[in-house]
Amino acid sequence: MYRVIKVLNNNGVLVYDMKREEEAILLGNGIGFGKRVNQRFERDENTKRYTIVDREEKKRSGRQVLSGMDIEFLELAGRIVELARAELGELNPNILIPLADHIAVAVERMQNGILLKNPFHGDIRILYPEEYKIALKGRDMIQESSGCMLCEDEVGYIALHIRAGRMDEKLEESLQMITVMRMVALMVEESLGIKLDPHSFMFERFMAHLRYLVARIRDGEAISLDMDKYARTQFPESYALAERICARLGEELHRQVPREAVGHLGIHIERLKV
């Protein structure tokens, strides 16, 4: 059972969830039509429920969280979240309001001719291709609704929001992943004296393996296959570079890097030489 706190528009209502004892946002066609404050009702299966962001936001009332927010962008964010759910699986509904905020600010920037450079755009596109694909579709939705075409740099930021919701991680963690992977790519380029082509299959394969490796190090998960001795004896130069990189990864991630990680990375570095 839900109690109406505020009708946002015909398609959105701020409510109190009486079962869970918390505020929430309900979005759905006509959900707000004819509703009155304090009215109690049950939602139907076509109505989407979103919680109020996180524990810190819950310290504020829903009215405060939504204060000044254009409901058009809340609905847009809801449509993008549902698209991502349909194509990628369950998402953390807490991304709704941060995503809506970002869309609103991004549209305002574009309308005022302000381009916010996203230094991680290329990395996001390669590391999170599924999320980026959804973000591109989201850009079309935003253009259709607001008449504003977001630049690709903004698409990258939307993809990060989707990634954070998909993996139930904070945006800071997604950015950390991208930052350390860029650091590794630069170390490889400088040490090998090469320029990696971000559009090549070889680069995408390397980054995919690296993402897997970094995630396991960050999460403290064991690496089952030990290729350390093989890599050290067969590819000594690549192994030495992998040792230096893993030392930096340990510093950046504040984690102990297992010896097995060095061997794995050394083998993937060696493949870049082919």
Fraction in beta strands: 5-15%
**Overall 3D geometry?**
elongated
Terminal CA distance reads 62 Å
Show unreliable segments: none
* β-strand number: 5
Biggest sheet: strand arrangement: 4-1-2-3-5
Description of the structure:
By secondary structure, the chain is α+β, with helices and mostly antiparallel strands. It contains 12 helices and 5 strands.
Any chance you could write out the topology, listing elements then pairs?
Layout (H helix, E strand, L loop, with lengths): L1 E8 L2 E6 L4 E6 L12 E2 L6 E4 L3 H4 L3 H5 L4 H18 L7 H16 L9 H7 L1 H18 L5 H16 L3 H22 L8 H18 L9 H7 L1 H18 L5 H13 L3
Antiparallel strand pairs: 1-2, 1-4, 2-3, 3-5
Helix pairs in contact: 3-4, 3-6, 4-7, 5-7, 6-7, 7-8, 8-9, 8-11, 9-12, 10-11, 10-12, 11-12
Key terms for this structure?
274 residues, elongated, five-stranded antiparallel sheet, alpha+beta
